[in-house]
Design a protein that fits this description.
CATH class: Mainly Beta
CATH superfamily: TonB-dependent receptor, beta-barrel domain
Largest sheet: 22 strands, antiparallel, barrel
Number of domains: 1
Helix content: under 10%
CATH architecture: Beta Barrel
Shape: globular
Structural class: mainly beta
Distance between the termini: 56 Å
Radius of gyration: 26 Å
Number of helices: 8
Length: about 775
């Protein structure tokens, strides 16, 4: 690039602001009576985004923005306004003055108050489903937050500290290759990570600090970039504690956990708009009935400070994670049958395990300037990762074994800025959004090595330093008019990859990169078009179309000299939101996705890890239903069907290994006014191919969990049971050509990590 990334971003930001101002100048409010106001939580005074504000006489409605603000058209002094927000008591007020502040109190869920509206929150994201699920289902861990996304499955296959394997919409997305994950706008995915592209480790997120989450499936969102092919998940942490809390947990397998959350500022400071809290988590577990205890520990700390500065709000957060564990790893099916290990919870290589840390700093300034909302965010992360694995045992090296280590140390620097503006032109509402940003990853070093006993490096397979930058700019416009909503956007991403091989010339890595240019660059344009038609307050149809991408690993990019640096994904959804009954909410979509290059990983031990995959396509059906049987009893169900195929392989050999084809989740949940709440839930994954010709099968499973809580103003007592019926199941499964120490020839078969058996935990939380 001829100009620096910072100057590039500044120039584009100025251009975007000018574009948004010009777009907004075309629209104004003509001969209409309007009121502006804000919806907040009564206790914390925090703004409530996506609250529904309705004129009870005309039924004209709008929703609140990120700062809780709303503008309601065609309103008169004699009209009244009703405000609805899931998990809060609805409120009706007479229109008295402009700039009204409406305070809502938390209350029971009532699906009758969920109204299908012609606003962008139904089209661009899935806030209705996420709000319902977060209020109905007790969340036991940060990993459970991922499971709340309909159709999303996870698997932990090497100790509790490693990022989960993610499955969504016919993708085995590895640890995040095809799903964009963020927390408070901070990117979680790690590019060119030592273990896998897009590695998304959410373990730094304390579940009790989660205020809400948003998700979307497919590549249809202009503000979401790299890895947004199957979809995205975005979490928000709380800004204000409504009360202090201390929680302790204890359960089987020597499991213990403690959480403390405390406000740091006085009530006087809060009255001035200042809030600060600190949250800490410590946990230990042997990790289950494994013959080699995992000795898994994790420590988390989060501090957050918020203050008002004129018309702006400043939020500063710091967090850190420290985690260490041992792991049994994947076990070949034959190992137990032949007596090589004494149970399915045995270990073949007891040196497996890992150690990881991540420290984050996040600063966000949100300003309201003449009907514009301008957000500026800067972030920094320092990550350390160390992992020992052994999948093939004595296949590649019959003498020393195939154990390998993966290691990296990384700094991430980032800045992003966005502006949004809502205006009116006649009966139409126009919403303009634009943004720009830069992310820079410096990894020093990153290595893949052949190891012995977890502490001796025999040789390097890869060793080097990685510098990777992503600069982006986007803009979209949404027009709401009558029953129609149109959204069109365009995103531009530019990448620069640098990989400096530092392995000795005698090692394998040197052979790959000798004579290769150490720097490659590329850019991609991603258009998006979304259309929504709202028949009435019970029925809504939508069409989404868009282009997305996932970036390739820098080592792959350099090794292949820039071949398919940014393979594109093209998708389309045709869907419906439907309320056939007052307390029944239904969502369904037919979808299609074409991917220019599938990221498939062979054995991590060897040169094949740098080979790109081929073209793939997926099509399927997603169905979600939420039903409130009574004031206190709820049900939900998600069914997801996919048909993933490799387009460059002949029929019969074109299956995508481990890609889910049929999954379902659901449950029954209760919430009484006297404090009792909880539920029973299931998750089901059907059998799926473990290799390209489906001669090997990854076995499906059906697992049921139970939670029961007794919640009062000062305390909560809880029981959580995983795998209630003690089913034998395999959580993670892979095809490996492996050889055990006594075998004379390798065997191609499925290896697995056993799923947790019956596992009960008791919890006590005290609020003060």
């Amino acid at each position: 690039m001829n100009q620096s990334p910072i100057r590039f971003c500044l120039n584009k930001m100025v251009s975007l602001i000018i574009v948004v101002v010009i777009l907004s100048s075309f629209s104004s409010i003509h001969a209409q009576s309007v009121i502006k106001g804000k919806v907040i939580d009564k206790i914390t005074k925090e703004p409530l985004e996506a609250a529904l504000v309705t004129n009870t006489q005309t039924f004209n409605n709008t929703i609140t923005d990120k700062e809780g603000n709303f503008t309601l058209k065609n309103i008169h002094s004699k009209d009244s306004v009703a405000v609805y927000f899931i998990g809060y008591q609805s409120q009706k007020i007479k229109v008295i003055t402009d700039n009204v502040v409406i305070e809502l109190e938390k209350g029971l869920i009532d699906l009758k108050t969920v109204i299908i509206t012609n606003h962008s929150n139904n089209l661009i994201s899935s806030k209705t489903l996420s709000s319902l699920d977060l209020n109905m289902q007790p969340v036991k861990s940060a990993q459970d937050m991922l499971r709340l996304v309909p159709g999303l499955f996870i698997a932990q296959h090497q100790g509790g500290g490693k990022a989960e394997q993610i499955f969504l919409r016919g993708f085995d997305a590895d640890h995040g290759t095809d799903i964009n994950v963020s927390v408070d706008g901070l990117p979680v995915n790690l590019v060119s990570q030592a273990h896998g592209q897009g590695y998304a480790d959410l373990h730094f997120l304390i579940p009790e600090t989660i205020a809400g989450y948003d998700f979307g499936k497919g590549p249809y969102y202009t503000n979401k970039g790299d890895f947004t092919t199957a979809g995205y998940v975005a979490y928000n942490t709380i800004n204000v504690l409504d009360k202090n809390m201390f929680k302790i947990e204890g359960g089987q397998f020597n499991t213990a956990r403690a959480v403390l959350m405390m406000n740091l500022l006085s009530d006087k400071a809060k009255s001035k708009g200042q809030n600060a809290f600190i949250a800490g988590e410590a946990m230990y577990s042997d990790g289950g009935p494994f013959t080699v205890p995992q000795h898994f520990h994790r420590y988390n700390l989060l501090g957050k400070f918020n203050t008002n500065i004129g018309n702006s709000k400043l939020s500063v957060s710091l967090s850190t994670l420290d985690s260490k564990w041992r792991a049994a790893g994947e076990i070949p099916n034959r190992a137990e049958a032949e007596g090589y290990i004494n149970s399915r919870f045995g270990a073949i290589d007891s040196a497996q395990g890992g150690y990881t840390t991540r420290t984050n700093a996040n600063i966000k300034l949100t300003s309201k300037l003449n009907n514009f909302i301008w957000e500026n965010q800067a972030f920094y992360s320092h990550c350390y990762f160390d992992l020992i694995s052994n999948f093939t045992f004595y296949y590649a090296d019959p003498v020393n074994g195939d154990e390998f280590g993966q290691h990296e140390m990384r700094d991430i620097y980032g800045y992003k800025s966005s502006v949004s503006h809502q205006s009116f032109s006649g009966a139409a509402t126009l919403t303009s959004n634009a943004g720009i940003g830069i992310r820079y990853d410096h990894t020093y070093p990153s290595w893949l090595s052949h190891t012995l006993h977890g502490n001796t490096i025999l040789n390097y397979i890869q060793l080097g330093n990685i510098n990777e930058a992503n600069e982006y700019v986007y803009a979209d416009e949404t027009i709401e008019s009558g029953k129609w909503l149109f959204n069109a956007g365009l995103r531009f991403d530019a990448f620069n990859f640098n990989y400096f091989n530092t392995a000795p010339l005698t090692d394998t890595a040197a052979k790959i990169y000798i004579g290769k240019n150490t720097s490659q660059s590329s850019a991609i344009l991603s258009p998006k078009i979304n259309i929504q038609y709202t028949v009435d307050q019970q029925t809504q149809l939508y069409l989404k179309m868009g282009k997305g991408f996932h970036s390739n690993d820098a080592r792959v990019v350099i090794a292949n000299q820039g071949y398919q640096i940014l393979p594109a994904a093209y998708g389309a959804d045709l869907g419906i939101n439907w309320k056939p009954a007052p307390r029944l909410y239904f969502n369904a979509a037919l979808w299609y996705l074409y991917l220019q290059q599938e990221f498939t990983y062979g054995a991590d031990f060897g040169d094949e890890s740098v080979e790109p995959g081929g073209r793939t396509q997926r099509m399927g059906v997603d169905v979600s239903a939420r039903y409130q049987l009574t004031d206190w009893l709820f049900m939900n169900m998600n069914v997801d069907v996919a048909n993933p195929r490799d387009l460059d392989a002949v029929k019969g050999q074109n299956y995508l290994p481990l890609a889910p084809r049929f999954t379902s989740t659901g449950g029954v949940y209760y919430r009484f006014k006297n404090g009792w709440n909880g539920g029973i839930s299931y998750r089901y994954m059907h059998d799926r191919p473990a290799n390209e010709d489906y001669t090997l099968t990854a076995l499906g499973y059906f697992v049921t969990d139970l939670t029961a809580n007794y919640t009062k103003r000062k305390y909560e007592i809880s029981l959580a049971i995983e795998n209630l019926f003690n089913q034998q199941w395999n959580e993670a499964q892979f095809e490996y050509i492996s050889r055990l120490k006594h075998e004379t020839a390798p065997v191609d078969e499925v290896s697995y990590t056993p799923g947790v058996p019956f596992f009960a935990k008791l919890k006590l939380a005290v609020f003060f």
